[in-house]
Write a structure and sequence with these properties.
Blueprint lengths: L1 H63 L4 H16 L9 H24 L4 H4 L2 H36 L3 H8 L25
């Protein structure tokens, strides 16, 4: 009888230990995914800040120079496309991440073109509003990069955690899936071609 009781106690103890490990591992994954999801919101917030600033930038440029309409139209269209492409933080698939990055890259390219073209307008470069906006956009671009890197750090740690044994068992049982990371755009490894010939 005592052997039976000891056996039951051992089985209950093993089940209790497994249960505690399961709960602990699951809670760790929930927390890690939650941190990555929260960081994704910070990324989107930085992109939203840039989008909000662009409207002011376009108005300032329009008011300060007889400007190339095509360049402004490109910026406005790229902004519209970038703000309409969003991702649910709980569904960061590679395809959705690629579409999001492509839309944001289009806006980055249009902004770069705008900044190069305005160099031809001395009265615009002297406009304090324009200089302030330009500085804010540069700062925002830096923020975006910092927030993306933080997201990649958190999502990368989470992805490693759900792939490791034995946590991968809990991850597969409870439906935790890898998060897509930001990656460089194709051709980003090449130095940009800077050309100051405006003729």
């Amino acid at each position: 009888m005592k052997k039976g009781l000891i056996g039951i106690i051992v089985i209950v103890a093993v089940i209790a230990l497994f249960g505690m490990w399961y709960v602990s591992a699951n809670n760790t994954l929930v927390e890690m995914k939650g941190q990555a999801t929260k960081q994704w919101a910070n990324v989107e917030s930085s992109y939203q800040r840039r989008s909000d600033l662009i409207g002011n930038l376009v108005k300032t440029v329009q008011g300060a120079a007889d400007f190339e309409r095509g360049t402004l139209t490109d910026v406005i269209e790229a902004r519209s496309k970038a703000t309409s492409t969003t991702i649910d933080a709980n569904n960061l698939t590679p395809d959705k991440m690629a579409a999001f990055q492509q839309a944001q890259s289009g806006l980055t390219g249009a902004l770069s073109k705008l900044m190069v073209v305005v160099e031809r307008y001395p009265e615009l470069k002297a406009n304090q509003n324009f200089l302030d906006l330009q500085s804010q956009i540069e700062g925002t671009e830096n923020r975006i990069n910092v927030e993306r890197n933080r997201f990649n750090d958190l999502a990368g740690e989470y992805n490693i955690k759900i792939a490791k044994i034995p946590t991968n068992i809990i991850a597969s049982l409870t439906g935790f899936q890898q998060l897509s990371l930001f990656s460089a755009n194709r051709g980003a490894e090449n130095a940009p071609d800077v050309n100051f010939d405006f003729n």
